[in-house]
Amino acid sequence: MLRSEHNHHPEKPKPLTRRQRMASRGERLRAQGLRPVQHWVPDLRDPKVLAAIRREAKLMAQHPENDAIDAWNEAAYDWSAWKRSAGMSCWWWFQASQDDQDPE
To answer: Among residues 87, 58, 60, which one has the least CA distance to residue 73?
Structure first.
């Protein structure tokens, strides 16, 4: 037996390109019933955005019905879910909230 025949290894497949990896990931996620969305959020690194947010927060705090609005928010919001999920990912919180709704 020739040495080259003995040490013959099958060729490794070419590595996937970034585009191919992303397409494959998208297919897997779609197979799980998910779809892609794009979110635009304020850029908190921008000093102008931060200044605008602070200005708006100050105006909201001065609203004549601010106390009533805060009281309604406190009464309407399920704080136990927030406390349970603090420090966890949104997905974990979503799963936990779904589990709470399942009858035992």
So the answer is: 60
Residue type, 24: S
Whether the model pTM is above 0.90: no
Tokens 């921008």 correspond to what residue?
Answer: 46
Tokens of 14: 């070419």
Angle in degrees, CA 54, 57, 53, rounded to 5? 40
Residue 7 CA to residue 4 CA, distance in Å, equals: 5
- Write down the residue that tokens 């969305």 correspond to: 37
Q: Is 88 left (phi over 0), alpha (psi -120 to 50) or beta?
A: beta
Q: What percent of the residues of the chain are helix, what percent strand, and what percent coil, each to the nearest 5?
A: 60, 0, 40
Spatial CA neighbour of 57 closest among 49, 41, 73:
49
**pLDDT per residue of the chain (104 residues) written in tens, 0 to 9:** 555 555 667 788 888 999 999 999 999 999 999 999 999 999 999 999 999 999 999 998 899 998 999 899 888 887 777 665 555 555 554 555 555 554 44
